[in-house]
Amino acid sequence: MNRLLLILLLPLALAPACAPEPAAEHHVLVNRNLVLLTDTTQWSPGQLTDYRDSLTKVGYRVLVSGYPGESSAALAARLPWLLQPGVDVFLYDERLAGQAGLDSLRVYLTRVSSPALIQELKQ
């Protein structure tokens, strides 16, 4: 009986040594597309590059878009082009086209049923 018990317990004693190693954790950086809508002339030299680089480090593929003095109508006219690559997040700087530009962006995204998020850039 003891012999039978030992034979039955033997696989349990060997199991940890024979078990496959747990899969190593791999940190895969998934790129998400982000459009930074801003008036680039409002940034100090190097500040915009540093900010874009910080967004890239946390997994965003960043496109900076905006023109000095751009109107909300001009911004709205460019939105179909900006959405082509599948934008996940719009980071909107109110200095670009004011509250009207933000409202135009929200209306457009709702109209085309885009899942893109809108976040306001706070300076």
Helix content: 40-55%
| Most strands sheet | 4 strands, parallel
Tally of DSSP helical segments: 4
- Given the helix and strand composition, which structural class is it? alpha/beta
Provide the gyration radius in Å: 26 Å
Distance between the termini: 78 Å
* Total DSSP E strands: 4
Structure notes:
By secondary structure, this protein is an alpha/beta fold. Helices cover 44% and strands 18% of the residues. A four-stranded parallel β-sheet has the order 2-1-3-4. Helix 2 links the parallel strand 1 and strand 2. The longest helix is centred in the N-terminal third of the chain and has 17 residues, at 2-18.
Please describe the structure with a list of short key phrases separated by commas or semicolons:
alpha/beta, 4 strands, 123 residues, 44% helix, single chain, four-stranded parallel β-sheet
